[in-house]
Amino acid sequence: MNKRLTVLHLDDGKELRGGQRQLLYLAKELQELGHENVVVCRDGSPLHAAALRKGLKVLTLPYYFEWDPVSALLLRRAVKAIPAGDAPPVLHAHTSHAAAMAWLASVGTDCVRLAHRRVDFIPGSLTARLKYSRAHGVIAISGAVRDILLKAGVPEEKIAVVNSTIDLDDTPWGPGEFEAYRSAARAELAAELSIPKDAFWAGSLIALVPHKDPENMVRAAAEVLKAASGAYFLVAGEGPLADTTARLARLLRIQDRFLLIGYRRDPYKVLAALDAFVLSSAEEGMGSVLVEAMNASLPIVATTAGGITDVIEDGANGLTVPPREPAALAAALLRVIGDPALRSALAAEAHRRREDFSSPRMAALTLKCYETAIENFKRNRHPVE
C-alpha cells in the first residue's frame, strides 16, 4: 500500500502477554514502513510502558468496562482530530473488549474498523454480529479461529488469516552466540532454583489459566517422572490457577521436580535454558510462544488444540498429541527425552521454520487486510448504522 496510514491499535489488557506483544511487533514494523501508529491502552499498564520504551505514540483510555461510553467518547474525539489524509484512519482492535470500544467510537465517523480474533471459542451472537460481522475486516490468527468465526456467522469474505509472529530483532543472541547465551542462562537458573545444570529440563511459558490447562502438564509430568526421575519441569507464568497447579503437584508428590517459577520479564533466558518446550493447552488460538521456542531451537511437544497445528507439524518441528490426554503428552515427552537424535532433528527444523513467522511478513499480510478493509469502507460507508 502506497498511502500513508494512521492506525490506532486498541488493547484493554492489564498484562503484557502474547496478544500485547503481537501488537507491539506489528506497530514497530508498520512504523518502519512509514505509517503512523498510536497504541490505545490503559494508563500505567505494562503495554503502556512497553510502547513508550519502543518510541510509539500512546493514547490512554480508562476502559472501565466492555461497552464503556466514556472511553468510546474519548476515542471518538481522538479519531475526529486526525487530519484528513490519503486514507481514513484505521481502528485495529486487538482484543474482544477493544472491538466493542471501536464499534461504539466509529459509528458515523470516517474510519475503518478491523477486529483481531486470537481465541478459539465461539463468540456470542451479539458479539459476533456487532464486533465482527459488521467490521470492515476481521483478522484470525489461525485457520482454527477462522473456522470458528465462520460458524458464528461472520462473512467469509471479511476474514483473513494472519498467523502470530515474533520479532527476530528481539533475539538476545547474535550469530554464533547461542551456546554461550544458553550456558549462562542455564547456570543462572540452576543457581536461582537450586537444581542441577546437567539434568533434563522441560518447561513452558504460559498464563496459568483454564484454557492453557496447566493441570494437564502436571499430570503428564508425574507420568514422565516415573520413568525419568532425574528430569525437572519449569513453568514460567502467573494466573488464577497458580495455587491449584501447585496443589496438584504436591498431591502427586512432584513439587520438588515441577517448579512454578513465576512471571519472567526475560522469556528467552528461560527458553534458552530448556531442553524441551511443552504446551499443554486445551484451547489455543495459535500459541505465539511456540514460535519463540522455535527461535530458541527447542524440540516442542504440544497438544493439537485450536491453531497449534498451524505452527507445529507432528514429527517435523515437534510432536503433537490430543488435548486433555496427559498420558499421551507424557509418552511424547519420554520419546524426546530418550532420543537425542529426535530432539536434534525436531529442534533444527523448528529453528528453520521460525522464518515463516517473522514480523515483517505478518506486517505485510496485515497491510493487505487494511487495504481490503478500506475498499470495503469506500463501497459501503458506515455499515454499523
Structural notes for this entry:
This protein is α/β, with parallel strands linked by helices. The protein folds into 2 domains: 6-165 and 358-379, Rossmann fold (3-Layer(aba) Sandwich); 170-356, Glycogen Phosphorylase B (Rossmann fold, 3-Layer(aba) Sandwich). Helix content is 43%, strand content 15%. It is built from 14 helices and 13 strands. The protein has a 7-stranded parallel β-sheet with strand order 3-2-1-4-5-6-7, sandwiched between helices. α4 links the parallel β4 and β5 (112-117). α7 crosses α10 and α8 (214-227) packs parallel to α9 (242-251).
What's the CATH superfamily of the largest domain, by name? Answer: Glycogen Phosphorylase B
Give the strand order of the largest sheet, numbering strands 1, 2, ... along the chain: 3-2-1-4-5-6-7
Q: First CA to last CA: what distance?
A: 28 Å
Number of domains: 2
CATH topology of the largest domain: the name is Rossmann fold
Average pLDDT over all residues: 94
Short recap of the structure:
By secondary structure, the protein is an alpha/beta fold.
Secondary structure elements and pairings:
Elements: E1 6-10, H1 18-32, E2 36-42, H2 46-53, E3 57-61, H3 69-80, E4 90-93, H4 96-106, E5 112-117, H5 125-133, E6 137-140, H6 143-151, E7 159-161, H7 178-193, E8 201-205, H8 214-227, E9 232-236, H9 242-251, E10 258-260, H10 267-273, E11 276-279, H11 289-295, E12 300-303, E13 319-321, H12 326-338, H13 340-353, H14 359-379
Helix pairs in contact: 1-14, 3-4, 4-5, 7-10, 8-9, 8-12, 11-13
